[in-house]
Backbone:
DNA sequence: GGCGTTCTTTGCGCTGGATCAAGCAACGGA
DNA sequence: TCCGTTGCTTGATCCAGCGCAAAGAACGCC
């Protein structure tokens, strides 16, 4: 067992899909994987392509986006280390429903379709883990769906930022930085609004010293107040009587 | 094997979750199930309750709805015969994320948590099937999410109706009837808009003889034209050059 | 058969956000 | 260092759809 191998196993230990496998098994899984490195802005796969592999992020951040026939684009999610993406082959889908792009330089492991099937067959635990993870993703998406259906833009943007803080927040002197390049346009596609509206909202927050932001960069200075906005019941609710 | 048992097995044969099991195995599955009958408007389970069982619709129609802390309610989906609902126990969730209500008189089978786990363990095929079904639901929801984020109300309502025709369409002399009680309010909660807007849209369509509707009743007279509205790229697109 | 309840329709005014349109700022490659 | 590109801001305008309000219409219960 080469130390290099050991290192890779350690990485997989944090991946919930493979939870419950022992070192030898993990080693086998790693052995079947293909390591992939991509630099910033490179594409990992495109929407509509045949889904041949599924991926786990080792390091860096990947954006999953979808584009509608009418040209409207949305960002489905950002995946960070330990997370799955392009998991279509896990459940027998045909083509990738979205495009995966490296937002930062990043590395990932991937497995092809037949290996995936073999793994799940040999280790049913993997299939069950996959079921759990998919269930969580479904729950997440349901939440965001409801959000989109019932809340107004400012709240949605606030929530998106709160979520991103959880996924990629990094303490800096000013506050908490979203630790990857994030433009106004990105936030708009993440929350179902327009670049302009996001810009206005962030400007307003900046005036209130709630955030500090720059080009593709957002720092939350007062996370708690952002959460307040995110959870505020709004004009439909019963705030400040 | 009593004929009654046979009959129930036949019902399960159409359920994709159990595809691949033989008669004896299906019989066992049916044996472990609890049959449940509910009349119109009765509740099967409520949002937030501990998820003890998962269900398969045998007959009738069930509405899955979610309510947000601010009181806004949305309808996640309608499940018809052969479809799963309340499938939280399949992937180890804790509480039901929504409320299930019988929209028509309906019957279902359900299994408790431990039985579910045992089934998946004994028949890995069931776990794989579950993975596939969950994957499809995820894909569906992603589609609807994008719809909500990028299309305007009229198109969303049209799409919702097209989908409902697929799920519960029944040919009648006038056209295709959505074969369960469906109010304007329901359509609004299904498409993320208000009762009033839906009413206006349906009234306009009625004027154009595209549909015929009444109290909790919708008949699509010209399905093709409805599809056209649903797919129209709209003012953002490049239609009719 | 009368009556309360539940759905639906429709008018009107308002507004959150989209759209359109400039112009400015920061970055990165040559 | 300069210049082209990409991202950000901000004003002005417009309108789809929401909220409110009030009046039918169809049901189902007693």
Residues:
């Amino acid at each position: 067992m080469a130390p290099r191998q050991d290192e890779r196993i350690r990485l997989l230990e944090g991946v919930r899909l493979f939870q419950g496998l022992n070192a030898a098994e993990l080693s086998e899984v790693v052995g079947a994987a293909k390591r992939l490195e991509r630099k910033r802005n490179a594409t990992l796969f495109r929407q509509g392509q045949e889904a041949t592999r599924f991926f786990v992020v080792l390091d860096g951040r990947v954006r999953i986006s979808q584009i509608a026939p009418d040209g409207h684009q949305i960002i489905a999610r950002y995946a960070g280390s330990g997370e799955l993406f392009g998991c279509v082959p896990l459940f027998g889908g045909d083509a990738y429903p979205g495009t995966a792009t490296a937002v930062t330089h990043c590395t990932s492991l991937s497995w092809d379709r037949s290996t995936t099937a073999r793994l799940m067959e040999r280790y049913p635990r993997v299939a069950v883990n996959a079921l759990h993870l998919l269930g969580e993703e479904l729950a997440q998406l349901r939440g965001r769906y409801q959000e989109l259906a019932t809340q107004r833009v400012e709240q949605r943007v606030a929530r998106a930022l709160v979520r991103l803080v959880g996924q990629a927040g990094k303490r800096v002197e000013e506050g908490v930085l979203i630790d990857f390049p994030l433009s106004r346009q990105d936030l708009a596609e993440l929350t179902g609004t327009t670049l302009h509206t996001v810009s206005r909202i962030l400007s307003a927050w900046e005036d209130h010293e709630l955030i500090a932001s720059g080009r593709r960069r957002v720092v939350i200075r007062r996370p708690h107040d952002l959460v307040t906005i995110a959870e505020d019941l709004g004009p439909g609710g019963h705030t400040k009587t």
